[in-house]
Design a protein that fits this description.
With 927 residues, the chain is α+β, with helices and mostly antiparallel strands. Helix content is 34%, strand content 17%. The protein is globular, with a radius of gyration of 27 Å.
């Protein structure tokens, strides 16, 4: 018997987490619920045994909870009374509690804050067992603790059918939302609120696929991967059959997600309406969203060109180029590295004599419009703001990196076995984008997390005797080409022939629903495509009209990575660090992959890194001409030569590995700015290095290192001490400044953390010092750099790299209440400049001295002046408030919100800067 599902909140990246309309008040809720609740019986059963070599030392966590579906009745109860469906929120508390509980952590207490991730379910812990659709070749057992599905199949088809069925049980609404996001159809499906408009525009601009495009990607992945390609196709079809079987069963039994009613797709009384079956091209649409979000480094070449031109305008060509390169930090010698054994992996380096550059004429760049024929709320002020923000995100090189990893070799652990604490930071949503599962069947043996709708395999997790995880790497697989226009604005020269651009579009319209009361509106999204990719900008180069396009190596190849994930789940394939590296080499998205078993650790950087033409600088746009194309590039299939596996950063059994989206290795250039002397990766590296030096590392000590870093203000730990050296270079006589310095010093002495005075206090210790720094940082950065750079160049550089990404800062690429912080900011620039002014040695310094023009006393005056202003800035000004928090509520401004992607809401938790899904593993033996 299928279990009663719970539901999620998708309308909120999509929409902020409040309100169902007034008619859903408590009195009427009771009446509505009465006919909607009908409990379904579950039959306990024993779980099948599995081969598990972790000895009870594998743990994981994924808030808020496994259950991401909710019926209409459950949504109404949640909205009216705050009640939660079973297993919708039971992982949120343990996850949140680590922030105040880690200091006394021991190995024995780890599963107070994490789940036991052992294979199987003890018979006493079985909550339910079902045979989906009455099949005899698969069972889904759910445990009492978290409700995670443990899928066991006796046939490959049955196993994957069960995986699809369980996915739909836990995430059907979310899966449906994101297949529409991937197709650019979100507003028509879920409502026209401005944030929905922005979300679909962000993805459609980068992946404007037609149905034929989506199918072609499947055909290519199958055709080029032999028996594994055929198996992947069979697995995907079985998975889809499972999803669609659940759709039919839940529709007939009327326990489908309640959001379908609230968005007008189903009628709660008559059950009229349909939930469309999933088809195989939906999986590619879903994959394109995930790949664009987390696995596509690069872009930003036009913005780079604009800031280079501004630097040359300010300083002259030679000195301006030096200044630009010093801020770009493409290979900064002080950057923290994942592979730190001195081995070099050159990629994306600056050519000695750049060729083919197509820099725009000053002031000529305009962004290509995406939205046309907007009506109603598709054309109002909120829609325009959302569209502008989506465009900036889509075209920036500052991707949502996130994710971290701490891996220590057994040589330095107490047990002699490697230990890993790692996981992806994928944001916080309700339901979560990821879902937990265990899959056991022919050729598959794994437990872990997968993106909803793509869970035919575990994507991040553990096998029988090994675990793996990933962080976003961000190396450059996206290039910009300038195509010269001919005839009109929609024809371009391709290899000397005037060629028409292809026009693709998507028209969406919406009207008010119970879930989203946004008034009616509509628009058409239109993209002009060339052989070099979609048009993103228009400009002139040397007076010639051009269109700037964006070409991504994974474009039209969103399905290719399925083979790598299939291998990771296959116990007959992965049995060593080398075979692990062989598996992830088949993943074409840009990720850092980490591995641990009972004896070895390993690392590999994946992605289809195109081999560029000789002399091409990937930082800037180049001419769309044969001489500057990727080597052996075929525009029909968007395939080219890629750098061989041996040239990707990789390592086996290094003393330790850390990654927090920092630089991978010497000479390996990442696309985003900010890989310099101060990076959030330092917070991990400093702590793990100390543990390794002392030896005897345990699971709990490595978790403590991660948790300690997750609460630390990067600026406070690595930048503010030198700022205070400048200020204290002579006695501070101003009483306001002296008081501020004293408060900050007290905070630094306590560790510079943003943490509660006690669990649940919702008040930070050293709150005033934190407020002062939050107010001071933007003031000091501007006062330090703008006078020397000039307003034009300063503005251009802030477009390349935001000055700050504090937890409360809604202006950062991640947005507010998202947890992930300190990935992008000017902390390295401030650090290098201040150290230079102090006369300290700086490797890879900025080309100029900026603070006070290099004068210590003038720099000190600037810092004191801005510090005084910051000290006098009220909390309500620093933290202006939003729909969740009142102005001045510092803790709330930082707090993490599970952004609703459906109908169920959750409480906000204290800030932590850590993975959303996280594993703690230490294997005791090996096959």
């Amino acid at each position: 018997m299928p279990r009663r599902t719970r539901h999620h909140a998708l309308f909120d990246k999509l929409r902020t987490p409040h309100r169902l309309p007034g008619f859903l008040k408590a009195a009427s809720v009771c009446a509505l619920i009465a006919g909607l609740l009908s409990p379904l019986a579950q039959t306990p059963a024993a779980a099948a045994a599995s081969n598990d070599y972790c000895g009870g030392q594998c743990s994981d966590i994924l808030p808020p909870g496994e259950n991401g579906n909710a019926t209409l009745a459950q949504i109404l109860l949640n909205q009216a009374f705050g009640t939660q469906p079973s297993h919708a929120e039971d992982q949120l508390g343990p996850y949140a509690n680590l922030a105040t509980g880690y200091s006394t952590l021991t190995d024995a207490k780890i599963n107070t804050f994490f789940n036991d991730a052992s294979f199987g379910v003890a018979s006493s812990q079985v909550a339910s067992t079902e045979s989906p659709a009455g099949r005899g070749d698969v069972t889904i057992v759910r445990d009492k603790a978290t409700g995670v599905p443990h899928i066991t199949g006796t046939t490959r088809y049955g196993t994957e059918f069960g995986a699809g069925y369980a996915a739909a049980e836990d995430r059907l609404w979310l899966m449906d939302v994101f297949r529409h996001v991937g197709r650019g159809q979100l507003t028509s499906f879920a409502g026209g609120v401005a944030s929905n408009q922005g979300l679909e525009q962000e993805f459609y601009r980068n992946a404007p696929y037609t149905e034929a495009d989506l199918q072609a990607q499947i055909d290519n992945a199958v055709a080029t991967n032999g028996a594994r390609g055929q198996q992947a196709l069979a697995d995907a079809n079985a998975y889809l059959d499972g999803i669609n079987s659940y759709i039919d069963a839940s529709d007939k039994g009327r326990y489908f997600p309640g959001e379908y009613v609230l968005t007008g797709h189903k009628d709660s009384i008559t059950n009229a309406g349909t939930i469309d079956h999933f088809k195989i091209t939906d999986l590619v649409a879903l994959a394109s969203v995930i790949g664009t979000l987390f696995g596509s480094g690069g872009g930003g070449e036009v913005n780079n060109a604009i800031s280079l031109l501004a630097a040359q305008e300010q300083y002259g060509v030679t000195e301006g180029t030096k200044v630009w390169e010093s801020f770009r930090e493409r290979n900064d010698p002080e950057a923290v590295l994942t592979v730190h054994d001195g081995k070099s992996f050159p990629y994306g380096t600056k050519p000695a004599s750049p060729q083919g550059e197509a820099l725009p004429d000053a002031g000529s760049v305009t962004t290509e419009p995406l939205v046309y024929n907007a009506t109603g709320t598709g054309a109002d002020q909120s829609a325009s703001a959302a569209s502008a923000a989506a465009t900036a995100t889509a075209l920036s090189s500052a991707k949502r990196g996130m994710s971290n990893a701490l891996v220590v070799s057994g040589k330095y652990t107490a047990s002699g076995h490697p230990i890993a604490v790692f996981g992806p930071q994928t944001g916080y949503f309700a339901p979560q984008l990821l879902m937990l599962q265990e899959i056991q069947g022919p050729g598959i043996s794994a437990r872990g997390a997968s993106f909803a709708g793509l869970s035919m395999y575990v994507e991040l997790g553990r096998g029988q005797d090994y675990s793996w995880s990933a962080t976003t790497s961000g190396q450059d697989i996206i290039d910009s080409f300038a195509v010269e226009l001919c005839q009109d604005d929609y024809h371009y020269l391709y290899h000397g022939t005037c060629t028409a651009m292809d026009k693709v579009g998507q028209t969406n319209s919406w009207k008010p629903t119970t879930a989203d009361g946004t008034a009616a509106g509509s628009y058409t999204m239109r993209v002009w495509k060339t052989k070099y990719g979609p048009v993103e900008y228009r400009a002139t180069v040397g007076g010639k009209k051009v269109a700037y396009t964006t070409l991504r190596s994974s474009y039209m190849h969103e399905a290719d990575s399925i083979i790598g994930f299939q291998m990771l789940n296959d116990p007959s394939y992965v049995n060593s660090p080398q075979t692990f590296q062989g598996a992830v080499q088949h993943i074409n998205y840009t990720f850092n992959w980490f591995y641990a078993d009972s004896s070895h650790t390993a690392y590999y950087n994946s992605g289809d890194n195109p081999v560029r033409a000789s002399g091409v600088d990937p930082e800037f746009p180049v001419w769309g001409q044969a001489a500057y194309e990727w080597r052996n590039w075929d525009p029909t299939t968007n395939t080219a030569d890629y750098t061989p596996a041996s040239q990707h950063p990789q390592s086996i059994d290094q003393d330790y590995y850390v990654s927090w989206n920092n630089k991978q290795a010497l000479d390996y250039t990442t696309a985003s700015w900010g890989d310099g002397s101060v990076h959030r990766g330092n917070l991990l590296d400093d702590r793990v290095k100390k543990l390794v030096a002392a030896g005897g590392v345990t699971r709990s000590s490595l978790v403590k290192a991660m948790a300690d870093a997750s609460l630390t203000d990067l600026r406070a730990e690595d930048v503010v001490p030198d700022l205070l050296k400048v200020i204290n270079s002579s006695t501070v006589t101003d009483s306001t400044a002296a008081a501020a310095v004293s408060k900050i010093q007290t905070w630094l002495a306590a560790g510079g953390k943003r943490t509660e005075t006690s669990a649940g206090s919702k008040t930070y210790a050293n709150s005033d010092a934190i407020r002062i720094l939050d107010a001071w940082w933007p003031l000091l950065v501007k006062a330090e750099f703008q006078p020397g750079l000039g307003s034009g160049l300063y503005t251009a550089f802030t477009a390349n790299l935001p000055i700050d990404e504090a937890p409360w800062a809604a202006h950062g690429p991640t947005g507010s209440h998202a947890g992930s912080s300190y990935q992008y900011g000017w902390w390295s620039y401030v650090d290098k400049d201040i150290r230079s002014v102090l006369g300290q040695s700086v490797s890879g310094p900025l080309a100029e001295q900026y603070c006070g023009g290099g004068s210590l006393s003038s720099c000190r005056d600037i810092l004191i002046s801005t510090l005084k202003t910051a000290a006098g800035t009220s909390a309500s000004t620093v933290y202006p408030g939003d729909s969740l928090c009142s102005a001045g509520d510092q803790w709330c401004a930082d707090s993490i919100v599970q952004r609703t992607l459906g109908g169920i809401k959750h409480y906000n938790i204290s800030w932590q800067n850590r993975p959303t899904f996280q594993q703690v593993v230490e294997y005791t033996s090996h096959r």
